Amino acid sequence: MSVITITKGNFESEVKNYKGTVMLDFWASWCGPCKMLSPIIDEIAEETPSLKVGKVNVDDEGELAQAFGVASIPTVVVIKDGVIAEVSVGYRPKDELLELI
């Protein structure tokens, strides 16, 4: 499955009401660790078809970032059936991110 851009407009349908597991990557274009993490998130999305993967640009979607209490980026949030299950702040290698699922 390819990565979805999550916005305030599609959050409810793509994440909140989704029955299954969603991994959200909160990032910004100026963030070095976010740039390092981005290809790993893309790989996870391609290799794990049962997982929905979304990216939230904190500069464009400040309201969503606030709602999740994102204070540092990158922040990866795993949501299972609409409920936050795991939160990881900072760069993490692929194997550690997969453990969150």
Quick structural gist:
The protein has four helices and five strands. The protein has 101 residues and is an alpha/beta fold.
Task: Characterize the structure shown.
- By secondary structure, the protein is α/β, with parallel strands linked by helices.
- The protein has four helices and five strands, in the order βαβαβαββα.
- Strands 1-3-2-4-5 form a five-stranded mixed sheet.
- Strand 2, helix 2 and strand 3 form a beta-alpha-beta unit.
Give the rounded overall mean pLDDT.
96
Q: Could you tell me the radius of gyration in angstroms?
A: 12 Å
The beta-strand count equals 5
Estimate what percentage of residues fall within beta strands: 25-35%
| Contiguous runs where pLDDT drops below 50 for at least 5 residues | none
Strand order in space, largest sheet:
1-3-2-4-5
Instruction: Quickly count the helices.
Output: 4
The CA-CA distance between the termini, in Å, is 16 Å
Question: Could you state the oligomeric state of the chains shown?
Answer: single chain
Shape: globular
Elements, N to C (H/E): EHEHEHEEH
Characterize the main sheet.
5 strands, mixed
Topology overview:
Layout: E1 4-5, H1 11-16, E2 21-27, H2 32-47, E3 51-57, H3 62-67, E4 75-80, E5 83-89, H4 94-100
Parallel strand pairs: 1-3, 2-3
Antiparallel strand pairs: 2-4, 4-5
Features:
101 residues; alpha/beta; 5-stranded mixed sheet; globular
